[in-house]
Each structure stands twice: as C-alpha cells, then as structure tokens.
C-alpha cells in the first residue's frame, strides 16, 4: 500500500481500526468514545463499524474505567482506554500506579497487563482548566509502566499498533495541539521499535532533544538557527520511559551540547533525568552544561496566558545561545 497523507488524529483512528479488525480481544473504552467518536473525533466511526460491545461508552468515572480495563486484561483482553483530557487522569492514578503497573511484578511474571491508556495532553488549543497539562513525568517515574508520545502521523499510527501488541501497560500521550498536523503514513512499513529515539534532523553544533508536541517546534528552531549559520541536530525521543539514552549520547558526542525541550514544568521533569544521565555518560564530551526548556513550576494558566507559559521559538533559541556561549 502506498503512503497516505493523514492528520495525526486520523492516523490514530486508522491504527485503532486495524487493531480492532486484527484481534477480537482488542476493546476501546472511554467517555464519549463510542457514538460521539471522542471529543477530538479520534475514535470516529469505530462504534458504528464494530459495535457497542467493542467500542464502549463508559460512565464519567476514570478510576472505574481503568479498573475495568485491568479486569479485562486479566481475562485475556487488550483494552485501549481513553482518558478524555490529561487533567482527568488523576482519579485513576491510584489504579494505574498501584494495580496496573505492579500486577506483572506482583505475580512474578505470570500475569500480563496489555492495557493502553490514551491521554490527549499538552496545551496550545486555548482550553479551560485541567485540559492542557503535561503529567508524563508522574507516570515515567513509576516502574512497570511504559510511557510514549508520538510527534507525527506515521509514529502515531505505528506506535499505537506496537503499544496494543505490548504485554506491558503503555501510557500513550497524544499531543493534542498536533492532532490536525498532516504527515505521510505507510501502513506497511514499521518505522522502528517502540522505545527507540530517532534523529529527525542532522546537525553538528548542538543537539535539541524533544518528544510529542515539541519536536515540531525544535525543527522550527533548527531552521531559524540555520539562517544564522548554526547547525542543530534534532532528536525525537518518542519514548519517555524507557528512554533511548544511546541515541542521545551518540548525538551529544558529535555536537557536544544538549538542550532538552518539553511542555511540562522543568522542575523534576523528564528533561532532568535526561540531563543527569547524559552528563554522566558524556562528561568529557560536553562543552556546556545540559540545558532544559519547559513550562514553569506553576499551575497551568488560563488560555489567554498559555503562550507565555509554553516554550516557544525565542525561549528555545535563547537556550541555544546560552549553550553555544560557553
């Protein structure tokens, strides 16, 4: 099949459709995922084609949704759960971290937990409170959970396929501000393993590492820097837990500088772990300290102020300038 250009949201929809067609044990659950097709229409058409027994509208009860998914997984199903917005996941946090993440270890490896939890996350859409948060570090800290975030349509399609096929629970963060960005998707060519990073732009002077919504921004930063004669390499991390440190290390050994970018607050964010690990691994290669750009250590602001909160071109370029000044 030739590659098809599709929006990131449509790529996830196509991937879910393929999973439902391929495996009768795959189920989709969540608030408004059925008849409505989800608030972002990511599950549009699936209820009509696969029925209410496989695409299930649930009550507004996140803890109950995830708890039910755990029970279904124990019975051999592969549930894909949607948390409608990032800020709504916390009623289910107990189920996720004390049950879902620990079942495999608790059973000494006998019990598999093939549950995917889809979470639209991040800002940039002018939403109200609790609709624009980036809680990925909270889940990456929990042993037993895999945490990923695609940045483009091809990865959105294939990373969903791989997440559903995984016997471990996967938290699948969807960058909602990128839902409508279009890209080529080849549904016959897997782009790579689920937890590998990818160099999406070659460079020699500095490495920008990001995932999800910030990858596109970093590519724009690299374009802007090129106009000033600076060559920036961009690494799409793709996986937040586990992290592919080898790919980052190889890039940093070449460029000798690293700036990590994410929407989540910088304080104790994913960038902190990456900075620490790369400093340990690349101490004698680094020409500057690893710098981080992200949100502020404050509650996510009202929509009219979110552009001041979110990393933008100027803030990332400022970090690039500071790194190159050493």
TrEMBL record:
Q: What are its cofactors?
A: thiamine diphosphate
Q: Does the keyword Cell division apply?
A: no
What InterPro entries does the annotation carry?
THDP-binding, Transketo_C/PFOR_II, Transketolase-like_Pyr-bd, Transketolase_C
The answer to whether UniProt assigns keyword Oxidoreductase to this entry is yes
| Stated name of the protein | Alpha-ketoacid dehydrogenase subunit beta
Source domain of life is: Bacteria
The entry's keywords? Oxidoreductase, Thiamine pyrophosphate
Cited Pfam families:
Transket_pyr (PF02779), Transketolase_C (PF02780)
Q: Where is the Transketolase-like pyrimidine-binding domain?
A: 6-181
């Amino acid at each position: 099949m030739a590659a098809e250009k599709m929006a990131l949201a449509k790529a996830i929809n196509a991937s879910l459709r393929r999973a439902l067609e391929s495996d009768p044990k795959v189920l989709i659950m969540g608030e408004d995922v059925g008849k409505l097709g989800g608030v972002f229409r990511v599950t549009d058409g699936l209820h009509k084609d696969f029925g209410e027994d496989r695409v299930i509208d649930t009550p507004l009860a996140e803890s109950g949704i995830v708890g039910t998914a755990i029970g279904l997984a124990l019975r051999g199903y592969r549930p894909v759960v949607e948390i409608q917005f990032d800020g709504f996941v916390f009623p289910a946090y107990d189920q996720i971290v004390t049950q879902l993440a620990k079942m495999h270890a608790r059973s000494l490896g006998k019990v598999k937990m093939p549950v995917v939890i889809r979470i639209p996350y991040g800002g940039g859409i002018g939403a109200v409170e609790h609709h624009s948060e980036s809680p990925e570090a909270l889940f990456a800290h929990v042993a037993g959970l895999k945490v990923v975030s695609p940045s483009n349509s091809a990865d959105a399609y294939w990373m969903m396929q791989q997440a559903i096929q995984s016997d471990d629970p996967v938290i699948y963060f969807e960058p909602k501000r990128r839902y409508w960005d279009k890209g080529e998707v080849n549904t016959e060519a897997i782009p790579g393993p689920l937890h590998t990073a990818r160099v999406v732009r070659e460079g020699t002077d500095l490495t920008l590492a990001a995932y999800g919504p910030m990858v596109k921004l970093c590519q724009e930063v690299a374009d802007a820097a090129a106009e000033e004669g600076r060559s920036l390499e961009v690494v799409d991390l793709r996986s937040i837990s586990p992290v592919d440190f080898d790919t980052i290390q190889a890039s940093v050994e070449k460029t000798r500088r690293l700036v990590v970018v994410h929407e989540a607050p910088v304080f104790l964010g994913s960038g902190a772990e990456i900075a620490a690990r790369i400093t340990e691994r690349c101490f004698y290669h680094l020409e500057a300290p690893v710098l981080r750009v992200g949100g502020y250590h404050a509650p996510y602001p009202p929509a009219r102020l979110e552009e001041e909160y979110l990393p933008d071109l100027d803030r990332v370029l400022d970090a690039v300038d500071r790194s190159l000044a050493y």
